Amino acid sequence: MEESLIPKLDNRWLTWAAFVEETKRVGYLAGPMVVVTLSQYLLQVISTMMVGHLGVLPLASSAIAISLATVTGFSLLLGMACALETLCGQAYGAQQYRKFGIHTYTAIFCLILVCIPLSVLWLNMGRLLVFIGQDPLISHEAGNFISWLIPALFGYATFQPLIRYFQTQSLITPMLICSCASLIVHIPLCWFLVFKSGLESIGGALAISISNWLNAIFLSLYMWYSPTCTKTRVPITTELFQGFGEFFHFAIPSAVMVCLEWWSFELLIMLSGFLPNPKLETSVLSVCTRVSNELGAGKPQAAHVAVYAAMALAVLETLIVTGTLFTSRHVFGYVYSNEKEVVDYVTTMAPLVCVSVILDSLQGVLSGIARGCGWQHIGAYVNLAAFYLVGIPVAATLAFWLHLRGIGLWIGIQFGAFTQTILLAIVTSCINWEKQASKARERLFQGLQ
């Protein structure tokens, strides 16, 4: 339990051989999780790409719909599911395998309950967008798109707790296989629904919904029938209702920490709708946000294993990724759109996206350290200050007052990301690792009660 939360405190990590060994361990655990995370992002990215080739309006409307779905639904469910990293981690470390399984069922049931009011909100999203002053045509199309994403919401609510169920047991292979299988199915399915079925942009939303449920079904079948899950597989009973209070106690601060950062980036898409030529601005900002999220994802898992090895891998990976992205900046926009105006704008934004990837990777490791120490509340304060007191005000000033438009929005939010990285680095430098080890033992002891 403690080993997964903090790096080793003896002097072995100072040697080159120990550092290399630690890096191998990080890569073994984090590598597959990066693939799993990317496969989830790619479901939305692929749908956005295919819908984007229908025209600027479909790209803009699907982009704002997916952004709203992320802001109001997916980020919330993901953050709440992170509570299982504490609950299931303690139960598994204490060998309370029945409690481990019950925690998983409780989380799934609670998240499905949360999906019900979210679904009502999504059904009325088109009218809400018009009410707050968004372009009526984009609002109508976005409302239709997000309505067809409602099944994806329930699939996501089932899938995320299952991810934590397997991750806590270090059962990485089934997640990797299931995620890749869903992604392989998603590509031809999305192509057929968008271009051949007559559904057009709505087909992209339907493909995401189907693929999310495939992920959940694949992992559920593996959990129920694989011998590797025998000790943690328990029957569904009314015991799951007894853990509601405990689950929400951990789920709420976890959700706040995750959502504050996600919301700030997705707010860029909303603000772009108020700029001149909102179709172009929304299209370009959505492409930049998707690329940044996709390429910068997956680092928090590594931070739980070893801080220094994770940071080294993060730096190496960002150098490779940003170099590739910058080199291909003149052609990358064509992946999302055939419109030359969109492609040229994406080319202009590419250097800023590279900066975003670097900051996102570094803060991902630092955020993982904070969560590993049980400091979700500190992470929430850091994200609140960095993005809502610095990033978003600077972005709005540059975009609307200095008339830098979409570029101003993106520069501003990177000010927030830089502030976040600095603050988290300061927090990390102040960690007393011996004290954190003692707290880890206390949490494990409480799990045995």
From TrEMBL:
**Entry's PANTHER family?**
MULTIDRUG RESISTANCE PROTEIN (PTHR11206)
Q: Which Pfam families match?
A: MatE (PF01554)
A Gene Ontology cellular-component term:
membrane
Regions that span the bilayer = 26-43, 63-84, 105-125, 145-163, 175-195, 201-225, 305-326, 378-401, 407-433
Q: What is this protein called?
A: Protein DETOXIFICATION
Which keywords label this protein?
Membrane, Transmembrane, Transmembrane helix, Transport
Which cell locations does it reside in? Membrane
Concerning InterPro entries, the annotation shows: MATE_euk, MATE_fam
Kindly indicate whether the keyword Membrane belongs to this entry: yes
Primary location: membrane
As for family, the record states:
Belongs to the multi antimicrobial extrusion (MATE) (TC 2.A.66.1) family.
Q: Name one GO biological process term.
A: xenobiotic detoxification by transmembrane export across the plasma membrane
Membrane topology of this protein: Multi-pass membrane protein
GO MF annotation, one: antiporter activity
